[in-house]
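User: Teach me something about this protein's shape.
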Amino acid sequence: MKRRSLLALAVAGVASMSIGSLPAMAQGAADWPQKPVRIITPFPAGAGPEVVLRLVADRLQKMWGKPVVVENRPGGNGFIAIRALKGGDKDGYDLIQLDNVHLTAYPYLFKQLPYDPKGDFEVIAPLFKASFFFAVATNSPYKNVADLVAEAKAKPDQLNYGSWSIGNPVHLGSEVFESATGTKMGHVVYKETSQLYTGVANGDIAWALGSYGTSGSLQRGGKIRYLAVAGPKRLAAHPDIPTVGEAGGPKDFEVSGWTMIAAPKTINPAVAQKIRTDIQKVLQDPEILQRYASFGYEPFPLDQLTPYMASESAKYADVIKKGNISLE
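Assistant: First, the predicted structure itself:
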């Protein structure tokens, strides 16, 4: 399949969703839900995205008056969780938390996917957006991103970064960084995120991208430090940490992770709109926003999702092609 067709495929699923076109209490939605709702997540228990999902699920449970159960199905590039959704309820009682790469990168990485990005999912709402930090060991000789780039250029293929798999946002974001800086570094794959950032703290690898939700505990404990945030501006929760451009790296360099709630494509449109509206209400809660800040997460407005997905799809398609990255 040609790159242009794949890009259209990845974005069309979101572009087709109806936002605000149906009243929340339309027929079929007024008395929904009538039984427990399951939200499947590909993230393990305790991971930042999973913790956020449980916060949202708890609020939805109180709002709906029915149990909202979070079910962890980690592993297999998220395919285990996706298969569970495809084999479950089709009327909205089974939902899923998707990672950004499932719709923006995997269509280019895998020759065959166990799902159709356009035909299998009705995107309900984004949950959050998380900018990644450049993390190094506390005693690392690198004081800023410029130091990191200079070392990588002086020692091609000798400087290593890490991630927890091929094709995740941290890996692909690091590949984008290599492309933007004209450097070539080694990629070390760890089995778990905890092992990854422990590897950074121990100096086993030179650096890694990490969200505050996944690497913040080691940063707070003084085991790692952040050189910069890979976002267009400094974060309000971390005003002392410069952007990549401010730290001597490429200007406007951005790598983010975000997750969304999706349902089977067959869901009643009125029910989908009710869930969408209720999630948006939950995400406006001041307590939820405070917890977001503690993770270094930001709300992701629904109206920004479609154009952002198109931009990310194009970026990942380019870096995957340049890096000749592929998975079976």
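Now, about its shape. The radius of gyration is 20 Å. The chain is about 40% helix and 20% strand. If you'd like, I can walk through any region in more detail.
User: That's plenty for now, thanks!
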